[in-house]
Model the fold of this input.
Amino acid sequence: MFRSSFIGVAFAAAFAFSVLWSARGRRTSERHTFAWLLVAVAIAGLSLWRHGIDALATAMGIYYAPSALFFIALSCLMWLVYRLSLQVADQRQQLKRLAQEVALLTSAEAERAVRAQPRPEAISPAVAARRDSHAV
Done:
């Protein structure tokens, strides 16, 4: 086992531990936790199976194997950023819809409160006379 393989496996283990720690504290969702754990497993796998990187580069037609690894890592990161941007857009829509519903409910509640108050012209003359006698 090469020193770089040991460093890669140690990094993957530390990364997986930090992902699990943040999931335990509910700072990441289950979907993100699973995706990041897959990344950690991929890092550990490629660190241990060094010939796999060469086989991957040969299959992709890339002469320099670390370039293939860099391309794969960059593609994975772009895919993760794209998924996160889709989730942000979806949550923005949900937030907008929620704000609209709150505005409608607030308006309806204010309207209901105005209707619940007795109107001065709706009070019978006997009640108005009683109020006037108490006011003096």
